[in-house]
Structures are given as C-alpha cells and as structure tokens.
Amino acid sequence: MGSSAYLLITLLLYAAGAMHVLLHAVFRRSSLSSVSLGATLLGFAFHTAAIALRWSEAGHFPAVGLRDGASFLGWAIVLVFLLVHATTRVEAASLFAYPFVFALLFVANLAAASERTDPMLRSLYLPLHVVLAVFGYGALFAAFTMGVLYLFQERELLARSPRRFYYLIPSLERSDTIGGRSVVAGFGFLTLAIITGFLWNHSLQGRYWTGDPKQWAALVAWAIYVTILVARWRWGWGGRRAAWLQVVGFTVVVFTFGWATFAPAVAVAAR
Amino acid sequence: MIVIVGLNHETAPVAVREAMAFTKDGLAAALAQVRKDAGLDEVMILSTWNRVEIYGHSEKAALGAVVEFLARYHGRAPEDVEKHLYRLEGEPAVRHAFRVAASLDSMVLGESQILGQVKEAYQAAEEAKSLGAVLNGLRTRSIAAAKRARTETAIGRNAVSVSHVAVELASKIFGDLHGHAVLLVGAGKMSELAASQMVRRGARATVLGGRTFEKAEQLAASLGGRAAPFESLRAELVRADIVISGTGAPGIVVKREDVEAAQELRHGRPLFLIDIAVPRDIAEDAGHATGVFLYDIDDLQKVAAANLRERKKESAAAEAIVEQEVRDFLEWRRSLEVVPLVAELRRRADEIRKAEIAKARQRLGPLTPEQENALEAATSAIVNKLLHAPTVRLKELASSGHADDVGLVRRLFDL
C-alpha cells in the first residue's frame, strides 16, 4: 500500500470520529466520545504512517504542495487537540477541530502530490521550519477555538436559560486559561518558525528579508499575538476581551495568509 | 424466588414512612428476625427518608410473613399498614430493585443519593450475614446497571434544586471554585446552603453583617470564613467572585453603581450575582455591566425546572438500559435453576453405571488392573458423551425461559 491509500483510510477514520462527535453533541451520550476518540487515535496512527511513507516516496520532508501541506497541517492540529484533550478533558474543543481537520484531509486526498525536486527541499530547514510553523498555527487555532467556546458559554449564561451547548462547553475560566496557554505556546512556536524562516532564506539567497508576501503575513500574525500577550499580561485583559482578541486575531491571520497565497497550508512551506 | 415488600413516597405519607423506618442500630437484629419469622434464605432492608423496603429470597415466596413482620416490628397491625405496601415477587421484584438503584423510582428523578443508600443497605446485610448468592447477584447487577444508566444517559446530570443550580452555574463560570471568593449579603437559610456547597468545592466565604453582626459572625465561623461590616460592600465586591444576596430588606441593597464601580477595578473579570431574596436585593440593571451574570430566584427556578424536564426526557433511555440489565439478570438466574437438575441427572447416570459394572464384574471374574481401568474409562465415556448434549441444551433452555421443556426432561428421566 502506498501513502495515498493510508491517507484515504485516515480520512474515513476521521470522518467516523467527526460523526460521533456530532452525535455526542446532539444526544449527549458520553459513551459515544470514547468511540470518536478511538477512531481519531486509529486515524492518527494511519495518518502518521501515511506521512512517513510519503516522506520516503518523495525523498524530502512531505510538506510541499497542497496535498502534503494540508495533510501535515491536519496532522499537527489533531496532535495539538489530542494533547488538549489528554490534559484538560475538554471534549467540546473537538467539535471545532474535527470538521476543520476533515476538510483539510478531504482537500489533501483530492489534490495531486507535488512533483518538485528542488535542491532547497533537501535542506534541514524545511522540516524544522515547517514543524515549528504548523505547531504555531495549530496552537493559535486552539486559542481561537477556546475563544469561541468562551463567547458561546458567556452568551448561554447571560441568556439565563441554558440550552444544549451550555452543558458541553467548559467553564469560562477554563476556556480562558486554556486559550491563554495556547496563545503563549503558539507565540513561542511562531517566533521560532520566523527565525528559522529567516535563516533558511539566508542560506539560500544570502538575505534574511526577501519581501515575500508570506513573510509579511507571518509578521502580521506575530504582531497580533504580541498584542494579545501584552493585553493579557500587562493590561490585565482576561475573559471576554481576551476571547474576542483570540477570535479576531486568528481570523485576521487566516485572511492574511489567504491573501499571501491561495491556501495557508501551502504558504507554510512552499517558498 | 426474589420478593420485595415495601412502601415509598408514592404509597405512604411521611408519617407512615417515619413510623415504618428502621434505625441503623436496630438493623442487624431486624434482619435476623425477619429471616427467621418469614423463613427467608437471604434478606436485605433498605430504609431511607422516602422508602422502606425488605428484599428477600427463599425457595417458597413468603410475602405474607414479611408483611406481618414489617407491621409487627413497628408495633402495628398488618391490616393497618397493608394499604401502603407493595408486594412484589419474581420478575417485577427484580425490576423494582434495579429501578430503585438507578433512581428511576425516586421522588427527585435521577437523584444521586439513593445509589449510596442502596450500597449501604447491602453492606449492612452482608455484615449481618444475611446475604447469599442470589441477593449478592442482585446487588452487583443492579448497582452496575445504575452506574451504566448514570454514565450513559443524562439522567443524573444537571442540578434540579435551586441551591445546586446556583453552585452549578458558578462552576460553569469559574471552574472548580478553588480559591474563589463567595460574598454573602445577609444570612438566610438558602444562602447558607448554597454557600456551604461552594465552600466544600474550595471557595472562601465572607459574610456581610448589618445590625445583627453577631449572626454574620456565627455564619462566617461555620463556613470557615470571615465576617465584615455591611459598609464595606464596595470593597468586598471587588474581591468577590460570587455574591449571594438574601436579606429580608424591603428595598435594593446592591445598587447598579456599586457593581459598576467594582467592575471598573476588576478589569472585566466575571462576577456572578445570585439574588435569592424576595423582594429582590440586587438592582436588575446591575446585570448589564460587562462580565456580570445576575440570576434571581426565578431564573434559578427556571433553570432547575428545565433540568428536570431534561431528566425526564432522559429517563426513557435509562429505563431501556435498566430493562436490558434486568433481562440479563433473569437469564443468569434461570440458568442457575437447572444446576440441581443437571447434577441429579449425572448422579443417576453414574449410579446406573456403577451398578452395571458390579454386575459385569461378577460374571467376568477377577480382572487385571489394566482391564479394570479400561472398563471404568469406557463406561464413563459413554455416560459423559450421552449426557453432554442434554446438559448444554438444558442450560440454554433455562436461560431462554423455556421452563416447560425443563420439566419435560425431568419426566423423561424420571427424576
């Protein structure tokens, strides 16, 4: 079996996981979440195998082009959310992650693999830079998710008549804490990703700054998250204001990347 | 046969339930007595606020004797209490035991205390050595079923009393309440109840007292917190995360300006205001300030009612789980019923085999040890092989509830 077969199995398993999460949200049966978690873990194993196989097939770190880029971004998001789940037991977060990951994998399965065999792809900076960037954006996506959950829960509490979501979503303080930590982690990864990006450029072209749209986009994202951190730790902005910042910040980042390249996943790697 | 005699909140008024209750200290003696009087092999007594039930098991059902015991033990005539009692035997009794443990028979559907009370009752019966294989089986299966119903449905989820709703809402805002501050304005019964539950979850309490400062100090001491004069309201609001107000004052006690001033200094950190006073203590528009969640007694009651409706919806799913577990239990019980029959069948076959060997030996004369062994092995093998299929089928028939066919086997083999 080649890497594409593994990728297809991954897609099916993630779909099963996503289905169960939705059923869980509708019927609130906790027994279902273990099924979806099982499907996700199995899917993640196949996904890892698919990426490893693809690495040996392509001869370079598989994060170039739409197919490999989307696949790797999806892999990192699943990893980040599995970590969030393992440490916090917040199930509601997966409500957001699953559809997004499913969409990424769907795109990855449809797209053709990149045939590029640039010497620059053999550089060690490729895996280093891509892993850091993808984890950075994965963590910032987690922060976005926690922000959305916070605002949702706040609305439910203000309405004074809790509905279904009220029971699924973690407490305000929890969403706030996890969101804050995700921003810190995401910011750390993003900073390192930008530094390795500069170094990579320097090793290829002898320049750190090339004026590439992707560099501008990364810088905008970095600035946004500096603002969020300053707001949180210097001005004492917590709760709803921080939640809004996380949601708006991530949205701006996605749009910046949309502008910089067609798909953010490609932007991460394809230089 | 499993039997249950009992009364609950639906069949008996509280005065009767009180009169028929068993004390913890008298339980062991009562268990021994009912066992003797009613000729039960196994017995357990469940006695709570809302129900008094005697679970028994014996070969012959002894419902009348159990009723007699229950009445006489409490100094009543059986005729007087009869109308409050239900008497169940066999499958209905098993189903009842399962439903009670799963809190499907409770006054407050899905309440969590009953399972603990059931566990304690079995524990007490075990200590009094009045449990055997049957009631022990009922114990493990019904407790497991109750746990399944709780985890797989939302039957026990979400608070249905006002004070619990307040605590649950607080934990939806602040998480586990550890290190959070509760401010009590006024010292009523209900505020005390809600506050003590929050303190148990790790919150610190402050009690504001007015003219009767002593009362505030007492309450603060019982909550392990401190008391403060009413004039420090604004300062305390800045420190507090949760405010429970329940004064008997006729007018507004916590004004909008107070809350807004506090929120200024709190950087929009959430503040949960609970107004359980009638007439209300907290100005309604105080809830408009950012980060403030204001619930009055009506809001809390609405949430409690919604949660109860939700539980009722879930009860169908819980009933289905319990029903499935009841079936499994009954199947297990029936499969045990054929054990003596199978043993008898085997014993009879072995008797015949031994008698025939003795006859054969007389005709054959002395045999070598090898020949003895061969004869023994051959006859045993015939008996075992012949009986293997009927044994297996019997167990299958019994567990699927075909009791008549089991009777046929008895007649066929003249057992």
Task: Give structural notes.
The complex is a heterodimer of chains A (271) and B (415). Chain A has 271 residues and is mostly helical. Chain A has one domain (3-269). Chain A is built from ten helices and no strands. In chain A, helix 7 packs parallel to helix 9. Chain B is an alpha/beta fold. Chain B has three domains: 2-152, Glutamyl-tRNA reductase, N-terminal domain (Beta Polymerase, domain 2, 2-Layer Sandwich), CATH 3.30.460.30; 162-304, Rossmann fold, CATH 3.40.50.720; 338-412, no CATH class. Chain B is 58% helix and 13% strand. Chain B is built from 16 helices and ten strands. Chain B has helices at 14-20, 27-37, 63-73, 78-82, 91-101, 113-127, 133-152, 162-174, 189-200, 213-222, 233-239, 256-266, 297-337, 339-364, 369-399, 403-412; strands spanning 2-8, 42-47, 51-57, 86-89, 181-185, 204-209, 226-229, 242-245, 271-275, 292-296. In chain B, the strands form two sheets. A six-stranded parallel sheet of chain B has the order 7-6-5-8-9-10, sandwiched between helices. A four-stranded antiparallel sheet of chain B has the order 2-3-1-4, with helices on both faces. In chain B, helix 2 runs antiparallel to helix 3 (63-73), helix 5 packs antiparallel against helix 13 (297-337) and helix 7 (133-152) runs antiparallel to helix 13. The radius of gyration of chain B is 32 Å and the shape is elongated. The two termini of chain B are 22 Å apart. In chain B, 40% of the residues are buried. The A-B interface holds A 28-31, 153, 157-158, 160-162, 166-167, 170-174, 177, 235-241 and B 151-154, 157-158, 169, 171-175, 267-270, 290-291, 293, 295, 299, 302-303, 306.
- Largest interface, and how many residues on either side? A-B, 25 and 24 residues
- In N-to-C order, the SSE pattern of chain B is EHHEEHHEHHHHEHEHEHEHEEHHHH
Determine the N-to-C terminus distance of chain B. Answer: 22 Å
The number of helical elements of chain A comes to 10
Shape of chain B: elongated
Structural class of chain B: alpha/beta
Strands across the major sheet of chain B, in which order? 7-6-5-8-9-10
Q: Please tell me the CATH architecture of the largest domain in chain B by its name.
A: 2-Layer Sandwich
Give the helix proportion of chain A (percent range). Answer: over 70%
| Overall morphology of chain A | flat
Into which percentage range does the β-strand content of chain A fall? Answer: under 5%
Oligomer: heterodimer
CATH class of the largest domain in chain B: Alpha Beta
Radius of gyration of chain A: 19 Å
Structural class of chain A: mainly alpha
- Spans where pLDDT lies below 50 across 5 or more residues of chain B: none
